[in-house]
Amino acid sequence: MSSATASGPGETRNKLALGALGLGAFAIGTAELVIVGVLNLIADDLDVSLSTAGLLVTAYALGISIGGPIVTAATIKVPRHTLLCGALVVFVLGNLAAVFAGVFGLLVVARVLCGALHGLFLGAASAVATGLVAPEHRGQAVGLVFGGISVSTVLGVPLGTLLGQNLGWQATFAGVAVLGLIALAVIMIWVPSVASSGSGGLGSQVQHAFHPRVLAMLGAEVLLMGSQFIAFTYLAAFLEDVTGIKGAMVSVFLMIFGVFSAIGTFAGGRFADINASRTLLVGNSVLIVGLLGLYFFRESPPLVGVALAVWGIVGFGVTPSLQLRVISLAGEGADLAATLGASAANVGVASGAAVGGWALASFGVDDVPLTALVFAVLALPAVWATRFLKVPVAQAPVTGSAPAAASDNTPVSTGS
Question: Which of left, alpha, beta for 349 (phi over 0: left; psi -120 to 50: alpha)?
Fold first, then answer.
């Protein structure tokens, strides 16, 4: 790797590279989340129930969770730059396939495919980002990449929803394909060739990435993200049917959530560099407050807006800390672990969407946020316990390797 590896995120070359990775994350984040705004359109057009249409969220998340690690393991020796570009090419083709999917089953297959490439891209982008900067700036680098995901909730999801409402849900997927092409071009130009951030072959990567300390962190991530997507999957329906918000105003409220998610993600990267474990604990606590407000003030649009802002600022704000902790705890298995972090988050998304669908069918859309609140409370002790997980002893740095040092103030041990 070039000497840029030791520099901070403010250097022009690194800033452009991180921005390009963030743009790619913006494209894939839009693909993942925009489905929430057009679920009702798909349900009506393909003649399925709303809860069945919600399986498209689950399908995408399962593609990330299962397909991402499998493809990453199969391509562990492929240059990161090639991997990023290849992932975006297939991602674009998958979204174009969704445009022409005339039956629900084919749309599900397209979502699984795009999800698998999403996981591959996000894992590789995280590993590249941490390798482009000095150890003390890794949280900010991850925050810039994942900032693309959160910005997609500000721009991609609301605009994609409006596009779908006016031109049909197929236009939404076509727009995502265009975004993917733009991101591909920018990454080809600005992101340098980067070596793997871990070390050793597949066997070594698996050994370190699946260490019990990493699995424990991934389990807490599943709970934390899953609790949010119980409510988020059916947020548009909740706003329309319970809060009484109609038409374009649904996009406005989704944008409120998105704006504060973006703010939280960029700020969360800085807090991750200070103390990732503490950031996760505080974020989980504030999430509980936000979901509590969403449930109890559900019939008041202004207070629902406030609750969405509170939820949004921590919902994605904890993501850099989650990803950084997973990468740090994996040590030499950083490349594979970077994808496992995205997988765990999306196991949470998939299970959250499934539980949300169950709550919707069993209790009605009114009580979906209450179900999410229960799971957010259950996540709190698990997140608290992860602060005691110790990172492995830092290895001597090699060219192209991301440091294995801790990202927060937890003491360093052998991790054995």
Answer: alpha
